[in-house]
Design goal:
39% of the residues lie in helices and 20% in strands. The protein is built from seven helices and seven strands; from the N terminus they run H-E-E-H-E-E-H-H-E-H-E-E-H-H. The strands form two sheets. A four-stranded mixed β-sheet has the order 1-7-6-5. This is Hypoxic response protein 1.
């Protein structure tokens, strides 16, 4: 059985909710990633911040990224997957919620992230195509 831990990118880092968006952008640059899980003061997942969130949700709205925090941007219920979850469970979770990245949790700690690139590297073309069809389908 292939698990989430088998296909994830290890070593993901939390972004504390109190960090500003300019600092988040610097972390994304330094880590060469487009998304960071947001952690509350107890290191619990409270959201995911993407580079697009910073641009569209902050800068394009005329806000100063040095004054807006990651916690200000965290909305909704974040999705995650257990490290020992079967890859079919990973795909189902991502398809059902139409998400392109998902944090991987083990013993209540962040151990990695699964992105589109990870899916493409580790799964069959049919699995990736089924995922992409659902995640990118146009909803009216």
């Amino acid at each position: 059985m292939t698990t989430a831990k088998d296909i994830m990118h290890p070593g993901a880092e939390w972004l504390p909710a109190h960090e500003t968006l300019d600092r988040a952008a610097q972390m994304m640059r330094d880590l060469d990633v487009g998304a960071l899980p947001i952690a509350d003061e107890n290191e619990r997942l409270c959201g995911i911040l993407t580079d697009r969130d910073i641009v569209v949700g902050c800068v394009a709205q005329g806000h100063d990224p040095s004054r807006v925090t990651a916690g200000d941007m965290a909305k909704g219920t974040p999705r995650w997957i257990e490290a020992n979850a079967d890859v079919e469970d990973v795909l189902r979770e991502m398809k059902n919620h139409r998400i392109r990245r998902i944090p991987v949790i083990e013993n209540k700690r962040l151990v990695g992230m699964i992105s589109e690139a990870d899916l493409a590297r580790h799964l069959s073309d049919a699995q990736v195509a089924g995922w992409a069809e659902k995640v990118y389908e146009h909803r009216r």
